[in-house]
Design brief:
- The structure holds two protein chains of two kinds.
- Chain A contains 14 helices and four strands.
- Chain A is mainly alpha-helical.
- A two-stranded antiparallel ribbon of chain A has the order 1-2. A two-stranded antiparallel sheet of chain A has the order 3-4.
- In chain A, helix 3 runs antiparallel to helix 4, helix 7 packs parallel to helix 9 and helix 11 crosses helix 12.
- Chain A is globular, with a radius of gyration of 24 Å.
- Chain B is of the alpha+beta class.
- Chain B has a domain of 258 residues: 3-Layer(aba) Sandwich (Beta-lactamase), CATH 3.40.710.10.
- Chain B is built from 20 helices and 17 strands.
- In chain B, a hairpin with a 5-residue loop joins strand 12 and strand 13.
- Chain B is globular and about 90 Å long.
- The chains are: A mainly alpha, B alpha+beta.
- Chains A and B meet through helix 8, helix 11, helix 12 and helix 13 of A and helix 1, helix 2 and helix 3 of B.
């Protein structure tokens, strides 16, 4: 009989909490040579949040994958620790100099966001007992996703521009700012899954054969062109290249899972390359990203448009193989290091070693998600889980590749790590969906009635 | 759908592998080159907490420390903080540059990785000092600069009286730079303050100064070469066979009618040896029409070719500070070619290039690559780097070089030579081979003439080649040659 492995999960969670507390204490020692204040408060509240999540899983998804929750908790906790470290900032250990874009309550807010994120995680587990029920709301969620995506672009929306970046990706509601695209990603993933499950047979029909590849029929190109157009609109109206690439990549990947047609992948990649090329020619801010990517050290670049990238790279170089140790680096030189560039802060203080470990944690998380997708039978759940797991991988690739100058930099959040609530909450909900799928996949079939030994045997005369 | 999922997993794996390879590249392989990037705020902040390497002028008259780091007392954090100090002051400013809280210039910038101790070659030494508990320290950079030549150059330029001027001396047989002076200049000690706002105030004042004291004119300013370009015109004529030897006569009409109908006169409308001088006489008298006419005969492409062999038109030369190119542009109009052959029209030259022109002749036609770095010595006194002299190009054959050398000797030794009065052997105490230049400039030549002089000495066994340019100084023989003579005398120890 398969086991739920909840005890493994608890053990791994305890380990994750220990790593996070150790890192937090390390920051205090690194900066001031003594234990940081609030070790008990932050530690206990973090442990409590994580414990509640674990208990919810025990109650509502007992067969779920045992690794996803500890991995998420570890990343979330390390994110809080790094934000606390950046809030203390301090040149030469001087707490007087702070990063201008961080307020004194940033860490507290991040802990609260984590609590809300875990609440969202639990809510998903409680209210969605089977992922496939979402299929009923395919088009409703599609519309909701598009509206969420379009909200910040509507003229007159309060606080739509993120300070210092020019990207219009957030809306202000009563003193808070929300980045609706983070939630749009989930809604659209459900929509894509529902739509593609319904249409996959048609989309998989072969049209003409060209260079050994079965091209789809021209009239089936509609959906991919619409998704492409929508992602280009995001790029144009919200100046947000990363999100646009993420959505389009998610759609193409799910299209591929649904149809198994390589031609769709090729068409998707070609469309994206073409779109990116045209955009780089038409829009200054897109072209600028390419310039910085190709020539980060050229001429006046290091002091102007490439400043952030250059500071991130110099931070990584400063960290080297083993890192400076938490609190000993100078990540405060990198502008907005607490959001898009937080991985460079980890790279600087934890070194190549720490950065690779964190990338492997993300990789493991993606692997667990894909495993759930492979194991589940229902095509809708399979498609959704596969798409969501791929979305994590793609998001990590886009942002970490961007800040390490592997690909042009496009600002999107690093899952679980970047400062800010919307991304954190949405990612917790995403993990809940993956856990729900894995719960469905691993749940043993109901016991056949013949196994019950006490059944009365009726003997025919 | 599982087959597609497996393939997608491979795509995810590929993305993570790419990220891992890239962070390994950045953090393991690029780490040291990133830390020595100019303007790296992280390592820059750190560099004041340990002793930066010294810069030493190690040529004739040395060794003399021209930059070192001294501990500052009473820093707020209690750690020892080091501040840069330039014992040589303004005289060495064009060489050392300065190292400040906001960046470095000159040798301080060019050899940052050695001085700061971040160069990969120093990694082993750093680990050893870490293990033996010695404080971290930068490496000493020894320069080819001769304190005798450098100080003579600076003082001669300073005494000249408020002109913008520069002088460069090099060893013709190696390319080692012996002196590099520029005026007006600045005192680098004023820029070493660790107080950021105070630095900005002083720096802005220097940047706003119309006399541009921060500009290193020796390598980064260019002026019309005037008649000194006749060395290259002669080199082209002798090498191509258009002029057989130094005694071949060439036409020197007064005036010369240019193809566009304009008239070119010799200086003071002088008649140059009745219009038919041997090339050596045209050279010592510096007849403009003779060389202008030769220039038309040679053509702009040939002149450009020979100028390039002497090091002109190169934007890649670095000593290691990047040197501004000296330009001889390709001209299509022969009237302009005529002007360019006597160093006018759009020719421009740096004082370093002037010295290189003479050095190539002095070294039998082989131009050595100019350099400043003698050696780099780690704190444990092991040498980690040194320069091996190398040839940059062959400008002319030894035969042609010897002919031009005779012509340059005549400039100072023939009683009618343009530099006889200021640079003959009894005045200088050594036989100098040189060429004067008096370059007209400004619209319609309304500006004051730039004085130029290029030379080497002793003529029989060249040890030093000098280029001097005094902006708006007047006659090359009167304003520039005496400065060159003083540098040569100081370096060779003659009076």
């Amino acid at each position: 009989m398969p086991r739920g492995r909840r005890r493994t999960e608890l053990l791994m969670l305890a380990f994750a909490v220990c790593v996070v507390l150790f890192a937090y204490a390390n920051v205090g020692y690194g900066l001031n040579g003594k234990l940081p204040p609030g070790l008990a408060e932050y530690g206990l509240s973090f442990a409590a949040i994580v414990l509640v999540a674990h208990l919810a899983v025990r109650r509502f998804a007992p067969w779920a994958d045992p690794l996803l929750l500890p991995l998420a908790a570890l990343l979330n906790g390390l994110g809080i620790v790094m934000i606390y470290r950046l809030q203390q900032a301090g040149r030469n250990g001087n707490a007087g100099i702070q990063i201008s874009t961080i307020t004194p309550s940033t860490t507290t807010a991040q802990v609260l966001f984590s609590a809300v994120g875990v609440a969202a995680f639990i809510a998903v587990l409680v209210f969605i007992r089977e992922v496939r029920v979402l299929q009923r709301y395919t088009y409703t969620l599609g519309v909701i996703g598009l509206v969420l995506l379009a909200l910040p672009a509507i003229p007159g929306m309060p606080n739509s521009e993120v300070a210092d970046t020019g990207a219009k990706i957030q809306i202000g509601i009563g003193g808070f700012t929300i980045q609706p695209e983070q939630f749009a990603e989930l809604a659209l993933a459900v929509f894509f899954a529902g739509y593609l499950v319904a249409k996959r047979d048609v989309l998989a029909l072969a049209g003409r054969r060209f260079l050994g590849i079965d091209l789809p029929r021209a009239r089936d190109l509609g959906p991919v062109l619409i998704a492409w157009g929508a992602s280009l609109l995001v790029l144009v109206f919200e100046s947000d290249i990363g999100t646009s690439a993420l959505f389009f990549g998610l759609f193409v990947a799910m299209l591929y899972i649904a149809t198994q047609r390589t031609s769709w992948l090729l068409i998707g990649v070609l469309l994206f390359v073409f779109g990116a090329y045209v955009a780089s020619k038409l829009f200054g801010h897109v072209g600028e990203r390419f310039t910085v990517w190709l020539h980060p050290w050229a001429g006046h670049n290091p002091t102007t448009i490439a400043y952030q990238t250059v500071q991130g790279l110099e931070g990584l170089g400063y960290g080297g193989i083993l890192g400076t140790g938490l609190g000993h680096g100078q990540p405060f030189w990198t502008p907005l290091v607490q959001s898009d560039f937080i991985m460079t802060a980890f790279g600087e203080e934890l070194g190549l070693t720490g950065l690779m470990a964190m990338l492997l944690i993300f990789g493991l998380m993606v692997e667990r998600g894909l495993r759930a997708a492979v194991a589940v039978r229902d095509p809708f759940s399979k498609l959704l889980a596969g798409g969501l797991a791929f979305a994590i991988a793609l998001q990590v690739f886009i942002i970490v590749g961007g800040v390490t100058n592997l690909i042009p930099l496009t600002g999107i959040t690093t899952p679980f790590l970047s400062q800010g609530g919307s991304s954190l909450i949405a990612t917790w909900a995403l993990i809940a969906l993956l856990m729900r799928v894995s719960d469905t996949a691993r749940r043993p079939a109901p016991q056949p009635i013949q196994d019950e030994g006490m059944t009365q045997v009726v003997r025919a005369g | 759908m599982n087959r597609a999922l497996f393939r997608l997993s491979l795509a995810c794996l590929a993305m993570f592998v790419l990220l891992l390879i890239n962070v390994n590249y950045v953090q393991a392989f690029e780490s040291s080159s990133l830390s020595s990037k100019p303007g790296n705020a992280r390592t820059f902040d750190e560099q004041f907490t340990y002793q930066r390497g010294s810069i030493v002028a190690d040529g004739v008259g040395g060794p003399l420390t021209v930059a070192d780091s001294l501990p500052v007392k009473g820093s707020s954090t209690g750690n020892t903080i080091y501040q840069r100090h330039y014992p040589g002051g303004a005289a060495y400013a064009p060489v050392t540059g300065f190292d400040s809280v906001y960046g470095a210039t000159g040798v301080e910038s060019a050899y940052q990785k050695y001085l700061a101790g971040t160069a990969p070659d120093l990694a082993v030494h750093n680990v050893i000092s870490l293990l033996t508990g010695k404080p971290k320290q930068g490496a000493t950079v020894n320069l080819t600069i001769s304190p005798k030549a450098q100080e003579a150059a600076y003082q001669a330029l300073e005494k000249d009286g408020g002109h913008q001027a520069a002088a460069v001396a090099i060893d013709p047989s190696t390319g080692a730079i012996l002196a590099m002076a520029s005026v007006p200049t600045y005192n680098p000690n004023r820029l070493t303050t660790l107080d950021g706002p105070a630095f900005v105030k002083i720096d802005n004042k220097l940047l706003a100064d119309p006399s541009q004291p921060l500009l290193n004119r020796a390598i980064n300013a260019s002026y019309p070469p005037g008649s000194t370009f006749k060395i290259i015109t002669s080199a082209a004529g002798l090498s191509t066979g258009k002029v057989a030897n130094q005694n071949s006569t060439i036409p020197a009409p007064e005036p010369l009618v240019l193809p566009n109908g304009n008239l070119l006169h010799n200086d003071d409308d002088e008649n140059c040896a009745n219009g038919d001088p041997p090339v050596i006489e045209a050279f010592w008298l510096s007849c403009d029409t003779a060389f202008a006419k030769l220039g038309i005969k040679l053509g702009s492409a040939t002149l450009r070719d020979y100028a390039s062999k002497f090091g002109w038109n190169s934007s890649s030369l670095a000593i290691p500070m990047p040197v501004s190119p000296s330009n001889y542009p390709l001209l299509s109009d022969p009237s302009y070619t005529a002007m360019s052959a006597i160093g006018q029209y759009s020719d421009t030259v740096t004082p370093l290039q002037e010295a290189m022109d003479a050095a190539a002749i002095a070294n039998n036609g082989v131009l050595m690559r100019p350099y400043l770095l003698q050696s780099v010595v780690a704190p444990d006194l092991t040498q980690v780097e040194s320069t091996t002299p190398s040839a940059l190009s062959t400008a002319v054959t030894a035969q042609v070089a010897s002919e031009i050398k005779q012509m340059m000797i005549a400039v100072t030794q023939n009683p009618n030579g343009t530099a006889y009065l200021t640079a003959n052997s009894s005045v200088a105490g050594v036989e100098i081979a040189g060429k004067t230049g008096t370059a007209q400039n400004g619209p319609n030549n309304s500006g004051l003439d730039d004085a130029v002089f290029t030379c080497f000495a002793p003529a029989s066994d060249p040890k030093i080649a000098v280029g001097v340019i005094v902006k708006e100084g007047g006659y090359g023989a009167d304003a520039a040659a005496p400065i060159a003579v003083k540098i040569i005398q100081a370096y060779l120890g003659v009076h």
